[in-house]
Amino acid sequence: MRRLRNLKIVATLGPSSNDYPTIRALFEAGADVFRLNMSHGSHEEIAQRHATIRQIEADTGRPIAILADLQGPKLRCGQFANGAAELEDGQIFRFDLDPTPGEAHRVQLPHKEIFDALEPGATLLVNDGKLRLRVKDHGPDFADCEVIVGGTISNRKGVNVPDVVLPLAALSEKDRDDLHFALDLGVDWVALSFVQRPEDVIEAREIVGTRAAILSKIEKPAAVKAFDAILAVSDGIMVARGDLGVELPVQSVPPIQKRLVRSCRAAAKPVIVATQMLESMIESPMPTRAEVSDVASAIYEGADAVMLSAESAAGRYPVEAVTMMDNVAVEVESDPTYRSVIEASRQAERSTVADGIVSAAREIAETTDIKAICCFTESGTTALKTSRERPRVPIVALTPFPATGRRLCLSWGINCYYNEKVERFKMAVVSAARAARSGGYGEGEDKIIVIAGLPFNIPGSTNILRVAPCEERLIFNLEPE
């Protein structure tokens, strides 16, 4: 089931995509990664979805990545005596720790950490930024705010504090419970919400270890400021544009998205562009032209993956949404302008032998008739470096480890195949040729590039490149090693 595009598609599972036939249809339509949203569904439901994905993986013989997305600490106001209240522009409204039901002039905000961190002039946003308040005075258990933009505030609405780095851990107690559960299931990626600083990722790493890769969600202004440090300790990044657009001026999100995508590519770490990509397809079988342009823009920028949230989890047309993303990606990647943009944004990375090897492989592939670049990888690093080059030919990654193959499903252009461990380079070339033929990348005298490291089975030792034919008989006719 070879994909006809390099972009990867992440589909969130939920009530609309909860059984084998639907999930299988999503996979066949183009989903490469399935997201399990730990904010919704019981552990039992999530375990069932996980088992269904693994069954589809076994039935199709193709690696599938599973991403567990942790909820993160959610800041919400308390409840109101009448269920809601109307706030008028210019009035003073108090948030406090008093659990008494709220009314027109106050409500509980059960997060003492916020009051400890607030400063006069700080902004509080309620209900995805629909209401905006400014702190006038505050103490250890209250904050008196002027209403800048009024409206209806109701029970348990979310509260954002964009101006302040909150002293909150990225992992709540629920997150820790969900994280241990997801790791025991055997997920491939864990997405951390509410990341503000690199220490948040390091804290999660102490629990995760090597059992899964860590994806940091960039959704806070503090995370944007500390992005380079967060990227350095993360395995991948999600540009969560929904919360970014609440806490930052919406016009600042596109340039931030472009900068983050480019930084991730330079670091050879996958990046997902997420939120509201085909939002109208929750109810409509067709997206808006603006949504299609939005998806296309992320592809032109060089993102590794784009993500569907409610479109595939709770929408009426989950399979159609995946199909639409697939169609857009195929169309964009066939546009000559796409190659021009991708190659113009390539940043030279030549700090290691492996960097030089993968760069040489890409240059050879661009100047000769090469059908695929085949790389042997244990940890996935060689494949990721090859993906960073954004070559014009397919990338075939061969690994003996299912965990590595599944994690690579998130990265641009990588097609993963499992192989037995090899000890001799000629047998590695044979294995690469078999994978290229079985995947439909080449046959007979068609040439492939094989990248590996000698001695074998030592991560990070990439140091050899060979151009070889796809036909085994021709390989064995080559001169002895």
From TrEMBL:
<dbReference type="GO" id="GO:0004743">
    <property type="term" value="F:pyruvate kinase activity"/>
</dbReference>
<dbReference type="Pfam" id="PF00224">
    <property type="entry name" value="PK"/>
</dbReference>
<comment type="similarity">
    <text>Belongs to the pyruvate kinase family.</text>
</comment>
<keyword id="KW-0460">Magnesium</keyword>
<dbReference type="InterPro" id="IPR036918">
    <property type="entry name" value="Pyrv_Knase_C_sf"/>
</dbReference>
<dbReference type="GO" id="GO:0000287">
    <property type="term" value="F:magnesium ion binding"/>
</dbReference>
<dbReference type="InterPro" id="IPR015813">
    <property type="entry name" value="Pyrv/PenolPyrv_kinase-like_dom"/>
</dbReference>
<protein>
    <recommendedName>
        <fullName>Pyruvate kinase</fullName>
        <ecNumber>2.7.1.40</ecNumber>
    </recommendedName>
</protein>
<feature type="domain" description="Pyruvate kinase C-terminal">
    <location>
        <begin position="356"/>
        <end position="467"/>
    </location>
</feature>
<dbReference type="InterPro" id="IPR015793">
    <property type="entry name" value="Pyrv_Knase_brl"/>
</dbReference>
<keyword id="KW-0808">Transferase</keyword>
<dbReference type="GO" id="GO:0016301">
    <property type="term" value="F:kinase activity"/>
</dbReference>
<keyword id="KW-0670">Pyruvate</keyword>
<keyword id="KW-0547">Nucleotide-binding</keyword>
<dbReference type="InterPro" id="IPR011037">
    <property type="entry name" value="Pyrv_Knase-like_insert_dom_sf"/>
</dbReference>
<dbReference type="InterPro" id="IPR015806">
    <property type="entry name" value="Pyrv_Knase_insert_dom_sf"/>
</dbReference>
<feature type="domain" description="Pyruvate kinase barrel">
    <location>
        <begin position="5"/>
        <end position="322"/>
    </location>
</feature>
<keyword id="KW-0067">ATP-binding</keyword>
<comment type="pathway">
    <text>Carbohydrate degradation; glycolysis; pyruvate from D-glyceraldehyde 3-phosphate: step 5/5.</text>
</comment>
<keyword id="KW-0418">Kinase</keyword>
<dbReference type="InterPro" id="IPR001697">
    <property type="entry name" value="Pyr_Knase"/>
</dbReference>
<dbReference type="GO" id="GO:0030955">
    <property type="term" value="F:potassium ion binding"/>
</dbReference>
<keyword id="KW-0324">Glycolysis</keyword>
<dbReference type="GO" id="GO:0005524">
    <property type="term" value="F:ATP binding"/>
</dbReference>
<keyword id="KW-0479">Metal-binding</keyword>
<dbReference type="Pfam" id="PF02887">
    <property type="entry name" value="PK_C"/>
</dbReference>
<dbReference type="InterPro" id="IPR015795">
    <property type="entry name" value="Pyrv_Knase_C"/>
</dbReference>
<dbReference type="InterPro" id="IPR040442">
    <property type="entry name" value="Pyrv_kinase-like_dom_sf"/>
</dbReference>
